[in-house]
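Exercise 7. Predict the structure of PRP1 splicing factor, N-terminal-domain-containing protein from Massariosphaeria phaeospora.
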Amino acid sequence: MSMKRDFLSMPAPENYVAGLGRGATGFTTRSDLGPAREGPSEEQMKEMLAKRAASLGQAAPSAYGVMERREEDEEEDRFQDPDNEVGLFSSGMNYDKDDDEADRIYQEVDERMDKRRRARREVREKNERDEYEKNNPKIQLQFADLKRALGGVSEEEWAALPDVGDMTGKTKRARETRMANARSYAVPDSVIAAANKSGELETTISTNDSGDGTMTNFASIGAAQQSALTVRLDSAASQTPGTQTTSTGTASVDPRGYITALDKKQAAGEEVPVEDVNRARLLLESAVRTNVHNGPGYVALARLEEVAGKAQTAKKIIQRGCEMCPKSIVVWEEAIRLNRDVLHNAKVIAASGIKINPKAIRLWMAAIELEQTAEARKKVTRQALDHNLQSVELWKILINDTEDIEKVKMLFAKATETVKLSEELWISYARVSGPEAAQQILNMARKAIPTSWAIWVQACRLQEELGKSDLCEKVMERAVKALIKENAMIKREEWITQAEICEEEGDVTTAVSIIKATVGWRLDEDDERRDTWLQDAKDSIARGRYAVARAILEYAVNVFIYSTTVWHALADLAKHHGTTEETHAVLERAVNACPSSESLWLLYAREMWQANDAVGARAVLARSFMQLPGNENLYTRAVDFEVDAEDYDQARAFLTMARSSAATDRIFTKSAALERQLGEHEAALDLCNQGLQVWPASWKLHAIKGQIYESLSKLKEAQEAFSIGTRANPKAPVLYILLSRMQEKQGAIVKARSTLDRGRQQNPKSAELLCEAVRLERRQGNINAAEKIMAVALQECPNSGLLWAEKIMHLEKRTQRKPRALEAIKKVENDPQLFVVVGKIFWAERRLDKATTWFTKAIVVDPDYGDGWVWFYKFLEQHGTEEKKAEVLSKIALAEPKHGEIWQSVAKDPKNVRKSAEEILMIAITKAEK
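Solution. The predicted structure, encoded as tokens:
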């Protein structure tokens, strides 16, 4: 059968050139319609000739022989950077300044676009991560409550659990094989005797505390558990959300070698073990032996011998190091240090090292330190400068050793002439010179170093010291323009740091000028400039640099003149770190810029009232009524001012005006509360009824109405008011709680439970209703029922600090409170109620420092939580100092807390309406039960 070769009818292979094997190449003529195919390269011709020679069994021609590619070249081609433009793209292209500018602009655009999207992207990623963790909780968290419930399983129930049977044949066969291969051994008599006594029970406990390991010390185990829980509590409270503290028992190894660890032990007064010294000596001697020119090895070995107390051996080793490593600066420095006990020897060694290394600045400085007199030091320093004229350190040493101010100026002149690029020398020269000379020196420095921002800052500070504060801003404006021209402008954050340094050193005007000129650098209108500046001001306030923060906020309000957020930040800064006049001036500017801002008007009136300027406060409110007619918040603030001034007729007049122009449920609530405070119960009830006709779902009006009836001992009417309120507004948990307590007072416990159950149905996952149900059962002595309700409550509201606090303090044994507190803190982050609970636990254990720490954490996390202040001051009354109590009283007056069960029960009592925060605190302390 013949084979038909059809390759002649097939298309030519890619890159095929006819006649390539015999050396033919392609060519182009004018008659061609297009360019001819490019001929093969020299490398291709070599490769084709080599293949042809190999097929014929001949050697490749020497002129066209193909050399084998090295493996290294192949590896380089494989891992070549694809973005590196080589070959075709590299020919004829020059990278000039325009390309550099274009690349820089593209890079800045990319950075700004990424910056604009970063915040939203991070928020989105955080939400997605939280949603994933919520939908996919860990196994241990899902079964935590079930694990705790296993503690109530009796021994009979445990014994009744069936054994897990082996239902697989594979396991059975493996067990049979294992049993067949098992070997038996003779059992000693001691094992039989021990097994015979294993079922006996001991009725006595030995008091042997010898620590020989034969007896268990239960007291030590309990103390260790308490200590471990305390450490874990502190760690849980201090660590940030999303982080975990991991402790291991492995020892850390210093990567810098053994010598550092040995030096630390010696500095701490510990005795260095001999085996450690021997081990380190063996390693270092091996390192020196294998590399005789290893200078750091000689230094390490010499220090080891020094630690071991063999000073002479150390000197011999370092001397050998100087001989073997004459160019190693560290070896000569170590030799000088080891021989400082004999000053002459140290000087000789320093001279030898300097002779070999005349450019070594550190050796010259070590030699200078060996001299005892100023003249000798200057002499050595001059010799050093002869060899190292550009060394700033040597010039500084020479100038510091010179006492005559005129000679100092001459040295500075010579130093700046020699080392023209040293900012430090120029600035120091200007500081020791007079005002006129300093200006000339700084001008010369600016010309010598046009890219130095420090010289411009020093020039600005000089103008402030000369009393020319008006020139500071002009100097900084020129500085910014010059630095931008030289492309030497530093980052905005670095400018803020320099401004804070100037404020710290007393140059406040310079700091403000720096902020005005640079705080907007590299921030476009599209960027979130307002938030950036607010954060910058907040950071400066945290560092105690209030002038810088004020300058940042002043710049921000000039840009965002209609932003109430910026005005509030500036007013808050003036209030806490300024004078009353400054605060009023800022608020006056704020209300003029934002006349429709209710919060700014209220803040302005409040600051006026607190400054004992009642006339000014009333004038501010009158102006606010003209700008915001019918605003209920302004009316309520005016009523508060009049009540504080005991002008109740004027307060009633304001409320009458408010009910006619801004008839809201809050206005009716305020009116009824005022009449109730004044003892006019009938008028208060009438106002409640009027308000409920317009606002039937206002739970506050229902609550006030029921409380008025309760104060009048009309329990039936009070119960009816609360009941109507729960039907009118079933989403108000407070009304269900008030109604259940009223029914409990009347002895209708079943009705009270039914009311709370009805409230829980209308308000699922309400921590207040769940906690009240637990407390109802606890007050009735049904601890088991309270624990069951609490278990359900923590499943529905696992992040409620109120429920955890109730469980820890009232449903847990004293020994189990710390573990539950630790578990609660891990689930509920930064809850002041839990911090107060932990403080009370430590207080009961007489661990006063720990209790103080946790009470302080509670008031710092949430100053508005009044119960934290109550318990902290109650603790200080027993274990605190007068200074600490006075500090707490001053802080609570500024915080003005509004929340907390104990605090609200006292503050909202009509008898205590006009009392100060300090007076309410004292009453609440008597009401709080430890």
